[in-house]
Design goal:
Helix 1 runs parallel beside helix 5, helix 2 packs antiparallel against helix 3 and helix 6 packs antiparallel against helix 7. The termini are far apart. By secondary structure, the chain is mainly alpha-helical. It contains 8 helices and no strands. The protein has one domain. Bound molecules: zinc ion.
Amino acid sequence: MPRPRRDEERRYGARAVRGAILRAVTEPTHVEAHGGSLGSRLNWLRAAVLGANDGIVSTAGLVVGVAGATDDRSALLTAGLAGLLAGSMSMAAGEYVSVSTQRDSEKAALALERRELREQPEAELAELTELLAERGLSREVAREAAVQLTERDALRAHARVELGIDPDDLTDPWHAAWASFLAFTAGALLPLLAIVLPPAGGRLWVTVASVLAALVGTGWSSARLGAAPPGRAVLRNVAGGALAMGVTYLVGSLLGAAGV
Ligand SMILES: [Zn+2]
């Protein structure tokens, strides 16, 4: 329930009101893969876990499929390595393109904001006041805060409150690309090593068991990082991986048996 400002001030003092203003202004309005706040670090971590999960599942499906057709270690190594590189580079390229596009649109929005601030400062001040009031400040306090923020750094204030971005901290597409590349590679190494290191008789079971165990870990972590209950997430994740390996193994065996 919003309260009149004087009540709040009497009860909590001017410092609490200033704190409320600060929170209203700095609270992120959308979830973004920046490096700054705790929330965004968790998002990075979760993206890394999901990237590793992709690497595990796709490479496991690939090598188990090839293992269905052949016992040849060098064929398994070639397939696994090619899958690792193709997957990690496609993830990196996709991430680079998507983050670049997002960055372009953020830059365009900032340029528009800069122009509006130059051409119609009064309307922009009114807009900022309105946005702050919508976040629970009284009109009086919102106006005061808007005036101060505009004096300090008008563009930054509008970027944060209106666009939900920090102009000094736009996501770097190269960072995002590298992060995806590394996360996928880390995940893909597990099934690759599990299929080529053990002797021929045990490699399939070692791979299936280690992949399913790893999927329990990634499913659990990504659910916890996303603050979701982990039980069902783990089940879905393990079922997805088991299905991928089951299907490719079946296809590989059929092709192997047909002598293709
Ligand atoms: Zn604006």
